Amino acid sequence: MFAPSRLAYSFHPRSGIGGVVGAASVALLFAATPFLIPAVAERYGVSDGLAGAISSTQVGAFALATFLLPRFFAPTPRVLRISVLTLAAANTASALPDLFPILLVLRAIGGGAAGAITWVAWADAMRGSRGLGRIAAAAPVTALLGSPLIAALADFGDRPVYLTLAAATIPVALIPLPATSATMTRSRVSRSRSNRVLLVALFLLTFAGAGLFVFEAVVARDVVGLSPTAASLAFSLNAGAGLLGARLASRHSRPGWWLASSGPAAMLTVFPGEPVLFFAGMAWWGFAFWMGVPGVL
Predict the structure, then answer these.
(1) This model's pTM is above 0.70
(2) Minimal CA–CA distance to 184: which of 78, 82, 75, 83?
(3) Are 138 and 8 in contact (CB under 8 A)?
């Protein structure tokens, strides 16, 4: 859910199927991370906190790619295909190494490729004339359907998860991609101070939220006492509520209030031995977050 927000808007009825499937594969990658952390910690003999570095390096490379690529390249099918193949290779290779630093390098490569895929899909989706409120949320749908599968695979370690992520990415490279007329353009940047305030607020919200969300599978196991299967249902509930929130986001004009309520919702997930609060917190967190983010954007 706290993957960079563009994932939620990369699916559009007028988008190419390659961009749609590519965005879904990236969403699955981020949805799998909370379940990968305990599996990686066990395999490499590191702490859960250190295993969380796979998320930091992945998201950091993702952000760097989405920031730099638009300044030097146009979002073409060729860029999408190269990025997809790179992500598939990085995911496959992540199942092989026995050294944790090598895994981090591979996750950085995968994160950069995922950022490129999301950028191309985003640019393609924005060629349509429909507003953000009518763009389907690819990330919540993917997390809703994929979390139970990823949780089941993570019971057998991180290798099956990475191989599944690679397999989910490969079909994008096999889909014929239409030619695009996308070109690099430069426009004046708004001097609005409110835009800068909103960017800082979104950074803080995502910084804090992601810091907890990627460890929620560990919280579910060690703090709340849930099985991996039960935890995956909570993640699916979070994604389903997020999808509902994304659909309803255009019907109100107070996104800030919804985002503010996501903080108390996150607090509910960390009460020891309280599964009901964990499920309630995860559901409201997803709903409130996606009720707010579209309006801020």
Answers:
(1) yes
(2) 75
(3) yes
Cβ neighbors of 182 (< 8 A, separation 6 or more) are 74, 75, 76, 123, 124, 127
pLDDT (tens digit per residue) in 242-283? 888 877 887 888 888 999 999 999 999 999 999 999 999 999
* Strand, coil or helix: 22: helix
Which one-letter amino acid corresponds to residue 55? S
- For residues 27 and 140, give the distance between their C-alpha atoms in angstroms, rounded to a whole number: 8
Nearest CA among 137, 136, 144 for reference residue 283: 144
Q: What burial class does residue 72 get, using C-beta atoms within 10 Å of its C-beta: 0-12 exposed, 13-18 middle, 19+ buried?
A: exposed
Q: Are 1 and 140 in contact (CB under 8 A)?
A: yes
User: Angle CA(38)–CA(3)–CA(166) in degrees, nearest 5?
Assistant: 65
Contact 18, 172 (CB under 8 A): yes
Q: Report which of 206, 286, 282, 283 is spatially closest to residue 249, judged by C-alpha positions.
A: 286
Closest residue by Cα to residue 281 from 223, 198, 199: 223
Which amino acid is residue 252, in one-letter code?
H
Give CA angle at 193 (192, 195), nearest 5°.
70
Q: pLDDT digit string (tens) for 99-121?
A: 999 999 999 999 999 999 888 87
